[in-house]
Design a protein that fits this description.
Elements (H helix, E strand, L loop, with lengths): L1 H6 L1 H8 L29 H8 L17 E4 L8 H10 L3 H7 L4 H6 L5 H10 L5 E4 L17 H9 L3 E6 L7 H15 L5 E4 L8 H8 L4 E2 L21 E2 L4 E2 L3 E2 L6 H4 L17
The structure holds zinc ion.
């Protein structure tokens, strides 16, 4: 299949995302945005289509026609408006309140914290016979966007993992470009769940092509699911199937599976595509 792709220059450039190697323009988070891409046909999975036309036959369990991965990035576990209040009460109660919040089904927690909804999400997914992945951050207090201590979530994460849902790492601002940081955060999360962590997504979808794939592979991850645009939904390299990325610098495939991200909730609204709630489900203007 790789040989087939190489034979078609246009398809090969899109598949490997050649334009993202040493880009002239990136955004304030050093991301390569859709608005500078020369491949404007983002809603068409053109590389996947080319592969299918050339003999790729994806097979899905139970004869299903397609597969979809549901994922959740856990940036925060408590709304910011609640944080000062929680901190105040926590200090008043000398740690008793904190203990109560950590207890997953504590009435206090359910009442006060609408973000503590892991089990609601799991129940909802269960109705549709679906199991998703939860990507947790394993930050230290001095890291940017630190919002929770992963050790405090041990019981809830164990519950998620032991019931068959996946737990992966949501890398902080540095991880996408720092092997040491990546290994450190992976170890921190693994200590909490007592299992290997094989899945990854970057916070803010920070990504450097092809370096992030290389360091993820070196750190021992089996798959990444960051590769999508933050500023537009669609198919960043024309793929709607998982693939092994190719490194144009080394001339080799990278030993990691990319499950491409096609749609992120906040891309549809607010700062990016500015769709309303009626248009958002289709993901297109
Ligand atoms: Zn995030």
């Amino acid at each position: 299949m790789l040989e087939k792709l190489k034979q078609n220059e246009k398809v090969w450039e899109l598949y490997t995302k050649k334009e993202e190697y040493n880009p002239q323009v990136t955004d304030s988070f050093e991301r390569f945005p859709y608005y500078v891409s020369k491949h404007r046909d983002v809603f068409e999975p053109n590389v996947s289509r080319f592969l299918v036309e050339n003999g790729l036959k994806p097979v899905y369990p139970d004869g299903k026609k397609f597969g979809v991965c549901l994922t959740h990035d856990i940036d925060v576990v408590c709304p910011s408006r609640l944080s000062p209040f929680v901190d105040t009460v926590r200090s008043l109660y000398h740690g008793q309140f904190k203990k109560a919040l950590k207890s997953p089904f504590s009435r206090l927690n359910k009442k006060l914290n609408p973000f503590w909804n892991f089990r609601d999400i799991m129940e909802l997914e269960d109705k549709y016979n679906a199991k998703s992945s939860f990507y947790f951050m394993a930050l230290y207090m001095e890291n940017q966007d630190y919002a929770y201590e992963i050790e405090d979530l041990k019981d809830e994460i164990s519950y998620i993992s032991n019931n068959g849902w996946e737990v992966g790492l949501h890398g902080g601002h540095e991880s996408y470009n720092d092997l040491e940081d990546l290994i450190n955060k992976k170890n921190k999360l693994e200590k909490v769940i007592g299992k290997n962590v094989i899945g990854y997504r970057s916070h803010y979808l920070r990504f450097k092509t092809p370096d992030t794939w290389e360091i993820l592979s070196k750190a021992g991850f089996k798959y990444d699911t960051t590769f999508g645009y933050n500023d537009c939904s669609g198919f960043r390299n024309g793929m709607c199937h998982p693939f092994k990325p190719f490194n144009l610098n080394t001339g080799k495939e990278i030993d990691i599976l990319e499950i491409p991200l096609t749609i992120m909730d906040c891309t549809l609204l607010r700062d990016y595509m500015r769709l309303d709630f009626k248009k958002a489900p289709s993901g297109q203007n």
